[in-house]
Amino acid sequence: MKKFILKRLLISVVLLFFVSLIIYAIMRCMPMSYVETQAMALATRPGAKSYEEWVKQLNAQYGLDVGVIQGYFIWASKAVRMQFGDSWYWNQPVLTKFQNVIWYSFFLGLVTFIIEIIIAIPAGISAARKQYSLTDYSVTVIALLGISLPSFFFATILKYVFSVKLGWFDLYGIVGRMHESMTPMQQLGDIIWHMVLPVVTISVVSIGGLMRYTRTNMLEVLNSDYIRTARAKGVSERKVVNHHAFRNTLIPIVTLLGGSLPGLFSGAMITETLFQIPGIGYTSDVSIMQGDIPFVMFYMVFLAVLTLLGNLIADILYAVVDPRVRVS
Description:
- By secondary structure, the protein is mostly helical.
- The chain folds into 2 domains: 2-79, no CATH class; 100-321, MetI-like (MetI-like fold).
- Helices cover 75% and strands 0% of the residues.
- It contains 15 helices and no strands.
């Protein structure tokens, strides 16, 4: 196992190198960036230098006056030392801004992940056990609705019903107008209350896929020969499902959940932007729109690291879930 993990880590480093190089090249080819925006603003001042002169000066200031390959290695040499520079738009170090916003996204992702597991896996198993019943059809309809609903559309409906019509929640934001005058516990409750609609949005949209996945795999396992043998021996249905079938159903589900774990830190860009939750997703969306290359580069590489880490976790969990799976 140690050799396998070491080998996968080395492969991940190589993949990360090429992925980050591609990301950097794309960032350098952005049609509009913070440099051009700043140059336009500075050039309009009375007696200021021309737009071209400002662009040349700002490019030299931010290290964009060299080629893509040379610029990438300059960036990478600093990145390996965890020096990602200052954000152009937020006017603070990239890592400082990241530390300030990541916990909102982590809380949002963690609650959604727990809800997804608690609801989707039991619902999928129940649908498989009672195939073609009312329960099965209900789970199928709910799953299809969740898969089909775009997050921005469902979030808009929730905001219209519960914010505009009923007035239970604010339209956007993470805190209310009286947040500063509240006690610490009331402030925590205020933040949690503002997280309800974003959590519901992400949960409903993401829960359908796991429901369908669990149901399909559970049906395949329940129709296996060893399940029929266990039933023929007189083993109770509960033990057949919970002990024999469920463990084997977990093997493909682990792949899906392993890839979902890094999502706890990656943020939900569309949902956070719609509700203006100041998490990593919303911050990255604003940074992309403003052409903030340092922060966007960090965010994209951060997502690449999370993806590689998720794949590694899924492979390791195979051997934990199924004793038949061993890594030589």
